[in-house]
Design goal:
The complex is a heterodimer of chains A (287) and B (280).
Chain A (H helix, E strand, L loop, with lengths): L1 H51 L4 H11 L4 H25 L6 H39 L2 H7 L4 H39 L4 H11 L2 H27 L4 H38 L8
Chain B lengths: L10 E12 L2 E12 L3 E5 L6 H9 L6 E6 L2 E2 L5 H8 L2 E4 L11 H12 L4 H14 L16 H13 L5 E5 L7 H18 L2 E5 L3 H7 L2 E5 L12 E5 L10 H8 L5 H16 L1
Parallel strand pairs in B: 3-8, 3-9, 6-7, 7-8
Antiparallel strand pairs in B: 1-2, 1-4, 4-5, 9-10
Helix pairs in contact in B: 3-4, 3-5, 4-5, 5-6
The chains are: A mainly alpha (287), B alpha/beta (280).
Chain lengths: 287, 280
């Protein structure tokens, strides 16, 4: 009797713990599904506005200025450093192999294919995305988004569409800027500081970096821009009250954007390269 | 002296069996209200009883969990986006903290609904903005200022000017006098009365300021927090003219009207202690 009564609560405890754990996991899965559906609806509503009615010039221009013009200095600086860091890192490895004249190829290819677009987008997710989430979050908390709705102005059309357009048009443009400054930075460090032969540096760059490398980076940056805008605006629109809520919206906007940038880079990059090399099998490069 | 009636029998707002639940928290339960055209109704009640939620549900900013809200016979949640915009222009919403757009000047804030929905030449638009600002007692030189530069009373009045610029048929005021000094509160009360007199608008005023409720409304509806009600108790504990408030036989109404805490502090302490015991 006593054994039975002792084991019953123990079993009950294990079962109840298991049930709680299942319920918690169920809650997490359910919540993830709801958020995924919600983001999909948010994206659909935003994109459908692009085909229905574009925002006015007065709402577009300030966003283009914020995303484009104000990001130029930081992007130029980031691009220059990426180029120089690549030169430093690649130099010692290539020197050991006696391939330092190929430095231009590896720097410029890494730059236009991967590092330029990804690091420019990451920098913009921090500078532009977090700011968007914080601004829209504050508007949500202070009922400004409700005010737009109450006055018959669709908040998605008024607030999200201009930001999406600014990001998808200007983030690729800024990526071109980052690529260019990276090329300049890599050139400066390799030729001026490391004293690599300029002729070989450029000849190898020209030989190994083709237009597909450059355009694949730019195509990816369109998607990076779209992801940053949608994620940041979504986090801002779903901001919880208070200063903590706004702070969390900005942080999660950056984290989600960064994860998406990496995921898009992996899957889109893979898809583009496999398609390209299937279409042009002779284009395979050999170092 | 309460406001004089200019109502008609046709209901402009018809709320039937409204329930609103956020997650597991029920906020509104089985609310039934009919507001005739031209009537000004004050919705009063303690903080957290669901007054603002009711207001936002009426304008379609919060979707009801169940029940129906008809505005001029139309269910806002069954309209297309275009139809909804047409109906929204018939509303004016004065937000608790004015909800002015920080990035715009006062002039741009007040002109916003006009720019969205009317095709007007700039001089005509500016003239309308200045006229509306003058109506709420604000000078011309305020148009270039940013909302952050204004006092609470000025922000409220700019919010009113913006809400009224399209000459709405229904104006919803969310805590219009909260946070203002007594003089400025009465200025806002006067503005609400003037708006009704001049434009024959229907008004819904959410407030816990009984002076405002008595002065501007012809009818008062009192909501009670669901957490303090039994499962079958009605959430509307009073619905009648303001003169009847003091004569109500319901002690909850009398207690609220007189602003008496009664045993409330004791109850709150007991609840806190019992919650603490459960947590341990």
């Amino acid at each position: 009797m006593s054994t039975a009564s002792a084991s019953q609560p123990a079993n009950h405890g294990i079962l109840s713990g298991l049930a709680d754990s299942i319920a918690d996991w169920g809650g997490v899965i359910l919540n993830s599904l709801v958020v995924t559906g919600d983001v999909a609806m948010f994206t659909w509503r935003t994109v459908s506005w692009l085909f229905w009615r574009l925002p006015r010039k007065e709402t577009l221009l300030p966003n283009f200025y914020q995303v484009g013009v104000l990001s130029l200095p930081v992007i130029a600086l980031t691009g220059t450093f990426i180029g120089m860091v690549l030169a430093v890192q690649a130099y010692f490895t290539f020197k050991d192999l006696g391939l330092e004249t190929r430095l231009g190829a590896v720097i410029n290819m890494s730059l236009v294919r991967e590092l330029g677009p990804v690091l420019a987008a990451t920098m913009l997710a921090g500078r532009v995305g977090a700011a968007m989430a914080a601004e829209l979050g504050t508007m949500r908390v202070t009922e400004q988004i409700d005010a737009l709705d109450s006055m018959g102005a669709d908040p998605i059309h008024y607030l999200v569409v201009p930001r999406l357009l600014a990001c998808i048009f200007l983030i690729p443009t800024l990526t071109i800027m980052a690529d260019f400054m990276g090329v300049v930075g890599g050139y400066f460090y390799s030729i001026v500081i490391l004293d690599i032969d300029m002729h070989h540096y450029w000849t190898n760059s020209e030989k190994f970096v083709d237009s597909f490398d450059f355009f694949s980076g730019i195509i990816k940056s369109f998607f990076f821009g779209g992801a940053i805008a949608i994620v940041s605006c979504y986090r801002g629109f779903h901001c919880t009250p208070g200063a903590e809520g706004v702070g969390r919206a900005a942080t999660t906007a950056f984290v989600w954007s960064f994860v998406l940038i990496l995921a898009i880079d992996l899957f889109l990059g893979n898809a583009m390269y496999s398609t390209y090399y299937r279409l042009f099998p002779d284009a395979t490069k050999h170092f | 002296m309460p406001a004089q009636s200019t109502t008609t029998d046709t209901p402009l707002v018809q709320v039937t069996g409204l329930h609103v639940t956020f997650g597991r928290q029920k906020v509104l339960r089985d609310i039934n209200i009919s507001v005739p055209k031209g009537q000004t109704v004050a919705i009063v009640g303690e903080s957290g009883c669901g007054k603002t939620v009711l207001l936002k549900a009426i304008i379609g900013l919060i979707k009801p969990t169940s029940g129906q809200i008809l505005f001029d016979g139309k269910d806002l949640f069954e309209l297309t986006d275009k139809e909804l915009v047409v109906q929204r222009i018939r509303f004016g919403y004065v937000f608790q903290n004015a909800a002015l757009f920080d990035s715009m000047t006062v002039g741009q804030n007040v002109a916003f609904p006009l720019r969205q929905h009317r095709r007007l030449q700039e001089p005509e638009l500016q003239q309308m903005v200045l006229a509306r600002l003058a109506e709420v007692g604000l000078p011309e030189n305020i148009v270039a200022k940013k909302p952050a530069e204004l006092s609470g009373g000025m922000r409220k009045r700019v919010g009113m000017a913006r809400a009224l610029i399209l000459k709405p048929e229904l104006v919803l005021y969310d805590e219009p006098t909260t946070g203002l000094d007594p003089i400025m509160s009465d200025v806002i009360n006067e503005l609400m009365l003037n708006t009704r007199r001049n434009y024959q608008v229907t008004g819904l005023v959410v407030t816990h300021d009984m002076h405002t409720a008595r002065k501007v409304a012809e009818r008062v509806i009192m909501l009670y927090p669901l957490s303090r009600l039994g499962p079958n108790d009605p959430q509307i504990v009073f619905d009648g003219p303001p003169q009847e408030l003091d004569r109500s036989s319901d002690h909850r109404v009398r207690q609220f009207v007189r602003g008496e805490a009664g045993e409330r502090l004791m109850e709150m302490r007991e609840q806190a202690e019992s919650a603490g015991h459960h947590a341990n």
